[in-house]
Design brief:
alpha/beta; 11-stranded mixed β-sheet; 36% helix; 19% strand
Length: 469
Amino acid sequence: MDYPEALDHLDRLINYEVQPRAGAIEGLSLDKMQQAMEMLGDPQHACPAIHITGTNGKGSTARMIESLLTSMGLRVGLYTSPHVSSPCERIRVGAAELGQPAFGRAIGDIARLVEAAELSPLSWFETVTAAAFLHFANEAVEVAVVEVGMLGRFDATNVVDGQIAVITNVGRDHTDGAPGWWRRIAEEKVGIVKPGARVVLGETTPDLLELVAAQSPEVINTLTTTSGPAALGSADFPATAGRGSGDARQQHGARQQHGARREHSLLGNEVAVGGRLLSVRTPRSAHSEVFLGLHGAHQGHNAAVAIAAVEEFFDAPLRSDVLQEAFASVEAPGRLEVVHRSPLMLLDAAHNPPGAEVLARSLAEDFAGLSRRFLVFGIQDGRDPAEVLEALDAASFDLVVACTAPTARGVEATALCDTALSLGARAEAIADIATAIDYVLDQADDEDLIAVAGSVTVLEVAREFAAEL
């Protein structure tokens, strides 16, 4: 298939990311994915993998892990979701996203397999996931970094055996919030933990530790945060993990066998020009004054998790020059992404209450010096708009412009506007996203801030609009 043919084929498949739905998705199973993988020769097992789940932060953490491994000289495959502008963004090899011709060929390979083997039709996400694993095997990547699409246990990515399993956090998303929701969500996320894996947690509670331990991992490495100035010394931590591609599988296997409980700590996380300044201690190393080229205190937490995950993968400390290079250049599309200056325009995929709270805190801390603040906002159904807008502190913006996310699940702009008004915000409804942004730009001065937030379908239009400014 060429690229347009691949998109046409995907459009004919069921896509739970944009399809209107009421309640839980029924009949979840990995059977179709496992059958497809077997027909392809199990490409998901062609290299070691780091598997990442969590309610928020998993995409940024995956990008940081990719950057760290790439800076060490490894050929890395990265699979993430959702995309902002093109589905090609989801599949990366060697820190470059898949080109359109290669994406078309990969989707065509999966479509021909399904047809020839007379398999049950795969979903949109299953097809792209299978294409990613096949492409990684064909490109001989040395390690795959794989982000879960939704939850974990029955996610299409869970056909991979993640030697390292990362759980960033457990929040109230993809759930009705009924009593017991936290444990139900946590049980699904820990479903990515395979026996003997090493687990890195960005959130630590006794209940989560209990659920993870029940999966029989080799190691559980948990994040702790220490307030106050960092006081790091390096004398006890040899800097031995250097560059060079080597054989990632061989290095991964050369580990001491011990079922240890470990901790990594974020000791410093301060605002810096263009990002954050971090101090992190792990069981194997100490890193002070590390510049991270991403905005928001939450990215400091994600960075600590990423460092711990890579050090668990190699069972060795990261070298400081590798860390500095990787974090200075890392990018996280749709996460406080600056797409225009004067006025400053940011894109952020804050579409649930935890993500909205993080965005509100980040704007207050990292961008406090700007004058007026405008919010362009649109989400898909499945979340309570009042909870998301309240978490965003919508009333603190000088103006909220509600728009309609351009999918069948998009919540109407007028409904979002009414919700914002009920929370005390000054709000208007403009359904078309580009028109909404243009309207705000007409009112904003160079010293102002415009945040475009919500579903990635909203960010896609915003990014295209900003590129033409």
